[in-house]
Protein backbone atom coordinates (compact mmCIF):
# COMPACT_ATOMS: atom_id res chain seq x y z
CA UNK A 1 0.00 0.00 0.00
CA UNK A 2 1.31 3.43 -0.91
CA UNK A 3 1.34 5.89 2.02
CA UNK A 4 0.95 8.96 -0.21
CA UNK A 5 -2.08 7.52 -2.01
CA UNK A 6 -3.76 6.45 1.22
CA UNK A 7 -3.06 9.82 2.81
CA UNK A 8 -4.50 11.61 -0.21
CA UNK A 9 -7.73 9.61 -0.12
CA UNK A 10 -8.25 10.02 3.63
CA UNK A 11 -7.68 13.75 3.25
CA UNK A 12 -10.15 13.82 0.35
CA UNK A 13 -12.77 12.13 2.54
CA UNK A 14 -12.09 14.65 5.31
CA UNK A 15 -12.42 17.50 2.79
CA UNK A 16 -15.83 16.15 1.80
CA UNK A 17 -16.78 15.93 5.47
CA UNK A 18 -15.62 19.50 6.02
CA UNK A 19 -17.67 20.67 3.04
CA UNK A 20 -20.77 19.05 4.55
CA UNK A 21 -20.16 20.64 7.94
CA UNK A 22 -19.51 24.10 6.45
CA UNK A 23 -22.67 23.91 4.35
CA UNK A 24 -25.03 22.79 7.10
CA UNK A 25 -27.65 25.47 7.76
CA UNK A 26 -27.94 26.48 11.42
CA UNK A 27 -31.48 25.10 11.67
CA UNK A 28 -30.23 21.59 10.75
CA UNK A 29 -27.10 21.65 12.95
CA UNK A 30 -28.83 20.59 16.16
CA UNK A 31 -32.45 20.07 15.19
CA UNK A 32 -34.15 18.36 18.15
CA UNK A 33 -36.42 16.22 15.96
CA UNK A 34 -33.46 14.35 14.41
CA UNK A 35 -32.61 11.02 16.00
CA UNK A 36 -28.95 11.95 15.57
CA UNK A 37 -28.32 15.64 15.17
CA UNK A 38 -26.11 16.73 12.28
CA UNK A 39 -23.39 17.88 14.69
CA UNK A 40 -23.48 14.48 16.44
CA UNK A 41 -22.84 12.58 13.21
CA UNK A 42 -20.15 15.06 12.17
CA UNK A 43 -18.40 14.91 15.55
CA UNK A 44 -18.61 11.11 15.68
CA UNK A 45 -17.08 10.87 12.21
CA UNK A 46 -14.15 13.14 13.03
CA UNK A 47 -13.61 11.44 16.39
CA UNK A 48 -13.32 7.98 14.84
CA UNK A 49 -11.21 9.21 11.93
CA UNK A 50 -8.82 10.57 14.55
CA UNK A 51 -8.98 7.45 16.72
CA UNK A 52 -8.36 5.00 13.87
CA UNK A 53 -5.45 7.06 12.53
CA UNK A 54 -3.77 6.62 15.91
CA UNK A 55 -1.36 3.74 16.38
CA UNK A 56 -3.60 2.23 19.07
CA UNK A 57 -6.40 2.96 21.48
CA UNK A 58 -3.80 3.41 24.24
CA UNK A 59 -1.73 5.92 22.26
CA UNK A 60 -4.74 7.99 21.18
CA UNK A 61 -4.29 11.66 22.13
CA UNK A 62 -7.65 13.32 22.66
CA UNK A 63 -8.47 16.57 20.94
CA UNK A 64 -8.66 19.66 23.15
CA UNK A 65 -12.42 19.34 23.59
CA UNK A 66 -14.60 16.30 23.35
CA UNK A 67 -17.92 15.05 24.60
CA UNK A 68 -16.82 12.58 27.26
CA UNK A 69 -18.58 9.23 27.05
CA UNK A 70 -20.65 10.15 24.01
CA UNK A 71 -18.25 9.78 21.09
CA UNK A 72 -19.41 6.24 20.36
CA UNK A 73 -22.85 7.45 19.32
CA UNK A 74 -26.13 5.94 20.24
CA UNK A 75 -25.39 2.48 21.59
CA UNK A 76 -26.26 2.14 25.27
CA UNK A 77 -22.96 0.40 26.03
CA UNK A 78 -20.98 2.89 23.92
CA UNK A 79 -22.47 6.22 24.98
CA UNK A 80 -26.01 7.52 25.05
CA UNK A 81 -26.71 10.61 22.96
CA UNK A 82 -30.08 11.06 24.67
CA UNK A 83 -28.19 12.24 27.77
CA UNK A 84 -26.43 15.10 26.02
CA UNK A 85 -26.95 18.53 27.47
CA UNK A 86 -26.81 21.86 25.68
CA UNK A 87 -23.32 22.28 27.16
CA UNK A 88 -22.17 19.16 25.31
CA UNK A 89 -23.15 20.47 21.89
CA UNK A 90 -20.35 21.45 19.58
CA UNK A 91 -20.66 24.57 17.49
CA UNK A 92 -19.90 24.24 13.81
CA UNK A 93 -16.56 26.03 14.32
CA UNK A 94 -15.59 23.46 16.99
CA UNK A 95 -16.20 20.49 14.70
CA UNK A 96 -14.49 22.26 11.80
CA UNK A 97 -11.44 22.92 14.00
CA UNK A 98 -11.34 19.25 14.97
CA UNK A 99 -11.70 18.17 11.33
CA UNK A 100 -8.86 20.52 10.35
CA UNK A 101 -6.68 19.13 13.15
CA UNK A 102 -7.17 15.58 11.89
CA UNK A 103 -6.68 16.61 8.24
CA UNK A 104 -3.44 18.37 9.14
CA UNK A 105 -1.98 15.26 10.83
CA UNK A 106 -3.12 12.50 8.44
CA UNK A 107 0.28 12.09 6.77
CA UNK A 108 2.11 11.95 10.10
CA UNK A 109 -0.31 9.44 11.61
CA UNK A 110 -0.53 7.17 8.55
CA UNK A 111 3.26 7.03 8.37
CA UNK A 112 3.70 6.34 12.09
CA UNK A 113 2.59 2.70 12.09
CA UNK A 114 3.74 -0.02 9.67
CA UNK A 115 0.92 -1.31 7.50
CA UNK A 116 1.56 -4.90 8.61
CA UNK A 117 1.30 -4.02 12.32
CA UNK A 118 -1.88 -4.94 14.21
CA UNK A 119 -4.74 -2.45 13.89
CA UNK A 120 -4.16 -1.24 17.45
CA UNK A 121 -7.81 -1.77 18.40
CA UNK A 122 -9.02 -5.05 19.91
CA UNK A 123 -12.33 -4.89 18.01
CA UNK A 124 -10.53 -4.58 14.64
CA UNK A 125 -8.95 -7.99 14.13
CA UNK A 126 -6.80 -7.10 11.12
CA UNK A 127 -3.63 -5.26 10.15
CA UNK A 128 -3.20 -1.48 10.22
CA UNK A 129 -3.43 -1.33 6.41
CA UNK A 130 -6.96 -2.72 6.55
CA UNK A 131 -7.78 -0.49 9.53
CA UNK A 132 -6.95 2.53 7.37
CA UNK A 133 -9.32 1.31 4.65
CA UNK A 134 -11.96 0.59 7.29
CA UNK A 135 -11.50 4.15 8.57
CA UNK A 136 -11.87 5.57 5.06
CA UNK A 137 -15.11 3.61 4.57
CA UNK A 138 -16.41 4.84 7.93
CA UNK A 139 -15.73 8.48 7.03
CA UNK A 140 -17.45 8.11 3.66
CA UNK A 141 -20.41 6.26 5.18
CA UNK A 142 -21.21 9.23 7.39
CA UNK A 143 -20.35 11.83 4.75
CA UNK A 144 -22.99 10.11 2.62
CA UNK A 145 -25.52 10.34 5.46
CA UNK A 146 -24.77 14.01 6.07
CA UNK A 147 -24.85 14.88 2.38
CA UNK A 148 -28.16 13.08 1.89
CA UNK A 149 -29.62 15.04 4.81
CA UNK A 150 -28.38 18.29 3.29
CA UNK A 151 -29.80 17.37 -0.13
CA UNK A 152 -33.20 16.28 1.20
CA UNK A 153 -33.68 18.96 3.85
CA UNK A 154 -31.95 22.01 2.36
CA UNK A 155 -31.48 21.29 -1.35
CA UNK A 156 -27.68 21.47 -0.94
CA UNK A 157 -25.55 19.20 -3.11
CA UNK A 158 -21.85 18.69 -3.72
CA UNK A 159 -19.40 17.60 -6.35
CA UNK A 160 -16.86 14.86 -5.83
CA UNK A 161 -13.47 15.46 -4.21
CA UNK A 162 -10.94 13.38 -6.15
CA UNK A 163 -7.92 13.65 -3.90
CA UNK A 164 -6.65 15.40 -0.82
CA UNK A 165 -3.68 17.17 -2.36
Which helices and strands appear, and what pairs or packs with what?
Blueprint: H1 3-23, H2 26-29, H3 38-53, H4 92-112, H5 128-154
Supply the helix-strand structural class.
mainly alpha
Low-confidence stretches: 73-78
Name the assembly state. Answer: single chain
Q: Which CATH architecture?
A: Up-down Bundle
Question: Based on DSSP secondary structure assignment, what is the total number of beta strands?
Answer: 0
Helical amount: 40-55%
Separation, N- and C-terminal Cα atoms: 18 Å
- Helix and strand pattern: HHHHH
- Major beta-sheet overview: none
Strand content: under 5%
CATH class annotation: Mainly Alpha
Number of domains: 1
CATH topology: Four Helix Bundle (Hemerythrin (Met), subunit A)
* Individual helix count: 5
- Tell me, briefly, the overall form: globular
Rg from C-alpha positions?
16 Å
What is the residue-averaged pLDDT?
88
Task: Describe the fold and architecture.
The chain has 165 residues and is mainly α. The chain has a single domain, classed as Four Helix Bundle (Hemerythrin (Met), subunit A). 54% of the residues lie in helices and 0% in strands. The protein has five helices and no strands. Helix 1 (3-23) runs antiparallel to helix 4. The longest helix has 27 residues, at 128-154.
Amino acid sequence: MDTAVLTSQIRAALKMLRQSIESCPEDLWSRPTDHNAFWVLAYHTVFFAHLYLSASQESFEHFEREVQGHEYFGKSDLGDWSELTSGDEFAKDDVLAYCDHVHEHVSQWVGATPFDAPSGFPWLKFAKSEAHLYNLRHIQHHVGQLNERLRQEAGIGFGWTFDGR
